[in-house]
């Protein structure tokens, strides 16, 4: 039976210039704010921490240790 990945949290492996989907889903959660990020809108992540971020501002604050 095939499962519809809509409205499911995706599992990703973050790489330097792209990510690889390892589990079916259509979104991830921002590691800082908890905001839902559609995979088509995902632009910011940390390879070292393996986390996604909702915006450039949030990613920068996390990198600087402010979050």
TrEMBL record:
Top-level taxon of origin: Bacteria
InterPro entries, A to Z: DUF2093
Protein name, UniProt field: DUF2093 domain-containing protein
